[in-house]
Design brief:
Strand content: 35-45%
Number of strands: 13
Distance between the termini: 57 Å
Shape: rod-shaped
Number of domains: 2
Number of helices: 3
Order of helices and strands: EEHEHEHEEEEEEEEE
């Protein structure tokens, strides 16, 4: 390479990993590639080294085995341990008090409600949990019990029921509206 001023050189359109550059290492002229310079200037990040980190893909979040990539907020929910939806609503109404990934709640009938999930699961094979809150006479005491659960589950919808059993010599069961419902779902989107 001729001894030319940098200002007289034509600018490169891009730099490829195999491009070579001249350096002076302890008084000796040597060459390095763009890949070598990038590794020196921006090493791969780790638990102990600051540097460049890759972002986890949806597939990497779903398998949950990669320990070298960073999870960003837009992909966190793809991990198997993350709830894909949750909702807290007032019974005997469609009033959602708080939620994530829920479009709507329908009050179907006494003790029966249906929910519509915003971003559907990949199938109806997801796990969930339903719970009710009730401080009224239809709540919990020594002679009665209130129970709830899913009665329908699809990729984008679910149904829940709440039952009440009174044991006063003869057990009597009926569907009842609790004061509030809570539901959560885990699975693959």
């Amino acid at each position: 390479m001729a001894d030319t001023k940098i200002s007289a050189l034509t600018a490169a359109g891009s730099v490829a990993g195999a491009n070579e550059f001249a350096i002076n290492e302890a008084g000796t002229s040597k060459k390095v590639t763009a890949t070598q310079i990038a590794a020196f200037a921006s090493p791969a990040a780790s638990d102990t080294v600051a540097g460049v980190a890759e972002i986890a893909t949806q597939a990497e979040q779903e398998t949950g085995t990669d320990t070298g990539r960073i999870v960003c907020p837009g992909r966190q929910h793809f991990h198997a341990s993350a709830a894909k939806f949750w909702v807290y609503w007032t019974a005997n109404s469609t009033t959602i008090l708080a939620s994530y990934n829920i479009d709507s709640i329908a009050d179907t009938t006494v003790g029966d409600a249906d929910g519509t999930i915003t971003n559907d699961f990949s199938s109806a094979n997801w796990a969930g949990f339903v719970q009710t809150s009730d401080a009224s006479a239809n709540g919990w005491d020594a002679d009665s019990i209130q129970s709830s659960g899913f009665n329908a589950r699809a990729a984008g919808t679910f149904g829940v029921l709440c039952g009440f059993i009174i044991d006063g010599g003869t057990a009597v069961a009926a569907l009842v509206d609790p004061q509030q419902w809570q539901a959560v779902g885990f699975g693959d989107l």
